[in-house]
Specification:
Layout (H helix, E strand, L loop, with lengths): L2 H6 L2 E6 L1 H4 L8 H16 L3 E6 L2 H9 L8 H24 L4 E7 L1 H5 L1 H16 L2 E7 L13 H11 L4 E5 L5 E2 L11 E2 L7 H6 L11 H14 L5
Parallel strand pairs: 1-2, 1-5, 2-4, 3-4
Antiparallel strand pairs: 6-7
Helix pairs in contact: 3-5, 4-5, 8-10
The structure holds glutamic acid (GLU).
Amino acid sequence: MSKSDLNQLRRLVIKIGSSLLIDAEGRLDRAWLQSLSDDVAELRQKGCEVLIVSSGAVAVGSETLGIDRHRARLEGLQAAAAAGQVQLVHAYQDALATHGIRAAQILLTPDDTEVKRRFLNARGTLEKLLEHDVVPVINENDTVATDELRYGDNDRLAARVAQIVMADGLILLSDVDGLYSTDPRADSSAEFIQMLTSIDDAHLAMAGESGTAMGSGGMLTKLQAARIATHAGCAT
Ligand code: GLU
């Protein structure tokens, strides 16, 4: 998606990775969140509806509860998500409110996007929020999702949300500024790939796993998400 395309968008899903939102101490980076809110306000002024899919609940909550999330078992991570989610969504609410924008929290599980009746129900709620000019702040419902039944990464969740609301744009924000031929943090000869018109298995094979302590997705899940979204007619 080019910058001029961005100005044409009518409905955009923005996915925020934990590594952007959380500082090295595991705390919410409120200055970053404020700058994101400024961008959201600008997009809305241009007539684009915005939905946010945000990670960060587990990272923030594990700091609050003193849980080592790289060693914790499922129930520990779920407790961390419960403690973190409330802080996360309040932080979005505060940052968006500086522009007079209202926020609402939606927590989804894969059933909500894979089972038709629940998919339609989620669509109804999201549409109603947009109609009320609210910015939905969405995350996976980590406190009830189990290992077998979770998205695991919010990239795929964001693509599903884009599909549910028939968004025309999906932006996956991370601490890497785009798609590279190899991991640019490990390989200085990595080439930036400006545009892909389709995503095939060779592209997926090229993408690496998650590279940071905070994030869980990496480029592979982003390409998989882009494939879901582009199949639904949504530029990524
Ligand atoms: N839902 C998880 C959280 O809020 C993040 C999943 C991901 O890293 O994509 O912490």
